[in-house]
Design goal:
The protein folds into two domains: 149 residues, 3-Layer(aba) Sandwich (Rossmann fold), CATH 3.40.50.1000; 63 residues. 43% of the residues lie in helices and 12% in strands. The chain is globular and about 55 Å long. The model has no long low-confidence stretch (mean pLDDT 95).
Length: 224
């Protein structure tokens, strides 16, 4: 290959299934207020949106609401204390990462999750393949959909945008990758709200499962 390339993954809803622990944090807050617990299915679609999505789904709160800041702090503290009790990599993703390692392809994580949650979570997962770059929501001055986090990860990996791929389950991932000059693949297995069709995000392709991702990566590798 004339130039180095890399694969960048969003974290929540793309590489890792964090929804059970995020939903549990919201439900512990509801339980403390004598509110009925919500099914995981109700909270799962907004898990990629972090505290703002979970608080909206669980309490009807918006970021501009007066109570939001305190509730967000409570949610994050609650989640931090139970950060990796039910969280796992999505099925097949361990094999995908091993495939990248076997072929000498650099990979990294670009997430809007703050670093004080990202780093402990990745450590707790005990990944068998180590990411070459971890960019959290507060690593750079701006988070996705700004391209800066993607560009920072590519720089760390010594890769170029046009030779690399950003994979994510939210339009922010596609916007960030596009602006950074990468290929953009939508993770169709991720946390997607009803009525939100990833086919309309402007991605180069929508990948529906890890086996399809593996095949797409193998094809992309042979064209570089």
């Amino acid at each position: 290959m004339a130039e180095s390339w890399a694969v960048l993954f969003d974290l929540d809803g793309t590489l890792v299934d964090t929804a059970p622990d995020l939903a549990a944090a919201a439900n512990r807050m509801r339980e403390a207020r004598n509110l009925p617990l919500l099914p995981l299915a109700n909270l799962r679609p907004v898990a990629s949106q972090g505290a703002s999505g979970l608080l909206r789904a669980a309490f009807g709160l918006q970021p501009e609401d007066r109570a939001f800041a305190a509730m967000r702090d409570e949610f994050l503290k609650n989640y931090q204390e139970h950060i990796c009790e039910q969280t796992t990599l999505f099925p097949g993703m361990t094999h995908v990462l091993s495939l990248l390692e076997e072929r000498g392809v650099a990979w990294g994580i670009v997430t809007n999750k703050p670093g004080f949650l990202t780093i402990p979570l990745i450590a707790a997962l005990k990944l068998t393949v180590t990411p070459g770059a971890i960019v959290s929501g507060d690593t750079t001055a701006r988070a996705k959909p700004d391209p800066l986090p993607v560009m920072h990860a590519l720089q760390q990996l010594g890769a170029t945008g046009k030779q690399s791929i950003m994979i994510g389950d939210d339009p922010r991932d596609i916007l960030a990758g596009r602006a950074a000059g990468t290929q953009c693949w939508a993770a169709g297995w991720g946390y997607i709200e009803a009525g939100d069709d990833p086919e309309g995000w402007g991605a180069d392709q929508v990948i529906r499962n890890s086996r399809s991702l593996e095949l797409a990566l193998l094809h992309f590798h042979t064209t570089q």
